[in-house]
Amino acid sequence: MRSEQQLHLNRRILIVGPSPPPFNGMSVMTQVLLHNLGEGIHLIHLDTADRRDISNIGKLDLLNVLLALWHGLKFIYLLIVEHPDLVYVPISQATLPFLRDCLFLLPTRLLRKPLVVHLHGGHFSTFYSAQKGVMAWIIRRALENANAIVLGQALVSAFDGIIPRHRVQVVPNGVSDCLEPGARERSSDHCFTVLYLSLLASEKGVFDFLRAIPLIVRETQSCRFVFAGEWYRREERQEAVELIRTFAPMSCIDFVGSAGPSAKAELLNSADVFVLPTYYPYEGQPCAILEAMSAGLPIITTNAGCIAETVIHGLNGFIVEQKNPGAIAESILLLYRDPMRRAKMGAASRERFLANYTIDRFSDRVAQVLTEAIDRDVITDQARESSLF
Hints:
Elements: H1 4-9, E1 11-17, H2 25-36, E2 41-47, H3 62-81, E3 86-91, H4 95-110, E4 115-119, H5 124-129, H6 133-143, E5 147-150, E6 168-170, E7 192-197, H7 206-217, E8 223-228, H8 234-247, E9 253-257, H9 261-270, E10 273-276, H10 287-294, E11 299-302, H11 307-310, E12 317-320, H12 325-337, H13 339-356, H14 359-387
Parallel strand pairs: 1-2, 1-3, 3-4, 4-5, 5-6, 7-8, 7-10, 8-9, 10-11, 11-12
């Protein structure tokens, strides 16, 4: 039996998850863990990335099936050869992706390895409650005796009926610090800039923001609206172009495409307000909101996932009604007309980021959950062995 010191220094953890590209919440957070988990932890990574563009995510085709089978076989090989002390799996919130996850979850359970699942969204309880018969049984069996990480207090009930509450831990996301020194010092010719930075999709609220623009332009011509991200659907891109032609001058609207780390930081530091009016059903805690907070921006967003725990209405931003362009416009105009309130909210965003959402805090919290799960399993094994004598 290994000593306590050996257990502390030689933890071997098999991390399952995609690395970027494409860049999305799950791939970015997997990358953060691989680069920042603490000393004394030996990481083994099974990269489940599909390098095709982001529009392929969640879609079923032959290549996805073949990739899943290949990843499943490689996982079993790593599980047997590497002898990890624990397996970490970010889990999905829909039927086919969850069945793919079972290629990792079920072998882990069969070999009685400690398991930590990480829920990056807020839809799992809805997904599970809709299941009947065999699928519900598969979910329960796959997650039996697992430990779970969720993004906020609003999501601790996500595994009710499957995983006991004492095994569910809250770990908010953490992101890189995007603030550049002097970024909030504006020149006299600076144009008030409102930034949307996320996947360009209707359920992320991109069309609600677009429909808010004519309401703002009607009150002031001194605003610039920047959209950064990839279009998820080609038809929506064309719909957006046609919509803009009907109500606003193209000169005040910029679509800048996908933004890498340096371009993203530049966009955030040149903006005055960040907008993400999402009603995406799988929303958890968008990294884009945390990045905007790190850059000291006031946030205009909606109550989805655990966003309302991240953005405190009236403190560092506004939580507006979903699918309400008028409320978006009203909040933007309020911040445009009140620079002191805008600065105060931006400072509150920055303060909340430093206190709760840095990469170091995120990595330390995850490392603690992983090591406690290993220690809990060791204690259980010792108790089981003692009962045999």
